[in-house]
């Protein structure tokens, strides 16, 4: 009989990372209640005692995945802020880069995104915080003369989160469009609108 446990030569961080990766996939596919620790450890070729070395419970590993998603998303959002003295002609490209980075993160981490942005109890709060961070960025950029002074940045931020949420499901998860192309389409819509200029 093969004894299950930590693979020979594998360090604890590798085992922990593997458990997080597999747990994310299980939670994303089956949901929280249908996911079992026994399935996670079986897929990782580890023992249940090994699982409990790193995580107190199924809830603990789920919460860590949500925390990881939140951290990565807000880090990308903060990095996307336009700084003072930025060349006005380069603004569309810079905004596109920031939005594409978020979509790329979602595309490369679909299970984590499904958990943090859609399945977790914290998902709605994460979206509210995302809208607040985007609003803060936009107001900062507005005060620096990048955007029209009368623009309602709360409405724009909330709209952008709605756009991101829907297009993540229909375009990113379905792999219908590359993150950079999708970001460019959104930026073009928001900055130039739909009307033909005469």
From TrEMBL:
Residues 36-55 bind DNA. Keywords: DNA-binding, Repressor. It holds the Pfam family TetR_N. It comes from the Bacteria. The lineage of its organism: Bacteria, Bacillati, Bacillota, Bacilli, Bacillales. SUPFAM superfamilies: Homeodomain-like, Tetracyclin repressor-like, C-terminal domain. The keyword Metal-binding does not apply. It comes from Peribacillus butanolivorans. Residues 13-73 form the HTH tetR-type domain. Gene3D superfamilies: Homeodomain-like (1.10.10.60), Tetracycline Repressor, domain 2 (1.10.357.10). The keyword DNA-binding applies. PROSITE patterns: HTH_TETR_2 (PS50977). This is TetR family transcriptional regulator. One of its GO terms (molecular function) is DNA binding.
